[in-house]
Amino acid sequence: MPGEEAHFYTPRVSIGATTWYVATSPPKKRRVTINDVARKAGVNKGTVSRALRGMDGVGAETRARILAAAEELEYSASELGMALATGSTRTVGIVLPSLRSWYFSEVASGASDVLSNAGFRIELINLDIDSDFLQIDSEQFARLFRQLGAGRSRDALLFAGTTSIPEDGGRALVPVAAHGGPLATAPGVFVDHWEGGRLVAAHLTGLGHSALAMVDGRMLGKVDASIWEQRSAGFLAGVADSGLDPDTVRQLRPGDCRSADGEQIGKDLLASPDSLPSAVFCHSDELAFGLIASLRRGGVHCPQDISVAGFDDHPMAHLWDLTTVDQHAYAQGVRAAQALLGMLGLSSPDTEAQLPATERLSVELIIRDSTSPVPRSL
Questions:
Q1: Are strands 212-215 and 250-252 parallel, antiparallel or unpaired?
Q2: What is the pLDDT of residues 322-335, one digit of tens each?
Q3: Which of 63, 94, 291, 349 is the most exposed place for a label (fewest CB within 10 A)?
Q4: CATH number of the domain to which 284 belongs
């Protein structure tokens, strides 16, 4: 009967000198229905439905009585039934290029915290593609985009790591938000990568460095390299602002932004007949980790012999004492989720203000011990 106490059975089985306790499922009982809750609360099932969905037209005392009855009976509304009744599944799909990147995990965590607090269930959709950013210009992605949005199982989609949404974004049939760069057809959150590069240049030149190098993190064959281009442009602009010629900056392109790529750049610098730069700006912290390790194995130490700065504020950056640009990955997810709630006509528990269609998040230069004034010998 509804509300009766469940009894779990733990049969004891003795084998030799060992006793094993085997947990089994409780005996099946009839599922509690909305009619049971209505009967318990002394109202009709329509009133129960409105109360549980948070709709108007139910008095505070009646609502409290219904909620108490539902809790006592351990009533769980059918998700399918609620979806049919409200047109909402309370589910948001967060689309990630990969689960292996700390950055996308941080973004997803920020978005998930906001959406969960707003009563949404989160569905992580891992594309598992070998790219930092979604290739939105491909036919494959356009097809995927339509497929993800065309079903009735999600109220909205949040794309992590895309710089734009296809022109026919409306064909997704569900609200869409994204983070990563300025968007033409959906609200989004992006980071001022240009300013981050400029801050690094101002810091390094302020320390007296003029023999500069930059390790570009763009991936080979990647059509959209706008984020890397923004970081480069900001850095070169900062160099020019200091009075130095930006054309003298050595630009190194390993073909990706991982630690192994930074390690290879370190080997190349050590093997080059040219003098080492006095300071290097890496487009990612992982590039900086690999570069520092490779140079150290070659007898070149940071920051005594060379200064190195990164971009990201990777969770390991503080352990490497790495000077870097914090792009606030968690906050990116938070703000993107808040924008999505605004599209759904809901106010976020974390903010009352309506977010702009496109929001630029500021970055912050975190100065640690991997950068120092230019060595006097140089």
A1: parallel
A2: 999 999 999 988 88
A3: 349
A4: 3.40.50.2300
Domain boundary pick from 77, 100, 134:
77
Asked whether residue 46 is domain-assigned, the answer is: yes
Q: How far are the Cα atoms of 130, 248, 356 from residue 215, in angstroms, in the given order? A: 20, 14, 34
Both 72 and 131 in one domain: the answer is no
| Integer angstrom CA distances of residue 277 from 256, 269, 314 | 21, 9, 24
Residues 33, 76: Cα–Cα separation, whole Å? 8
Q: Residue 57: give its domain's CATH number.
A: 1.10.260.40
Q: Which residue has the higher pLDDT, 96 or 186?
A: 96
Instruction: Report pTM.
Output: 0.71
Tokens coding 225: 């390299």
Which range marks the domain in which residue 282 is found?
193-327
Residue 221 gets the label, from left (phi > 0), alpha (psi -120 to 50) or beta, of: left
Q: What are phi and psi of 20, to 5 degrees?
A: -110, 135
CA atoms within 13 A on the CB side of 321: 10
In this structure, what are the phi and psi dihedrals at residue 244, rounded to the nearest 5 degrees?
A: -90, 160
Distance CA 232, CA 198 (A): 9
Q: Is residue 206 part of a domain?
A: yes
Lowest-confidence segment of 146-155, 225-234, 311-320, 332-341 by average pLDDT: 146-155
- Structure token pair of residue 122: 């989160």
Closest CA to 188 of 43, 349, 332, 378: 332
Least confident span in 65-69, 168-172, 271-275, 354-358: 168-172
Residue in the structure block whose two tokens are 């190349």: 268
The answer to whether the peptide bond before residue 303 is cis (omega within 30 degrees of 0) is yes
Distance separating alpha carbons of residues 126 and 149, to the nearest angstrom? 15
| pLDDT tens track for 185-227 | 456 677 899 999 999 999 999 999 999 999 999 887 665 677 8
- Please report the sign of the dihedral spanned by the C-alpha atoms of residue 295, residue 292, residue 161, residue 148: positive
| Distances, alpha carbon 159 to alpha carbons 61, 111, 142, 322, 358, in Å | 42, 11, 13, 29, 14
pLDDT, position 29: 63
How many domains, the chain?
3
Q: Has residue 33 been placed in a domain? A: yes
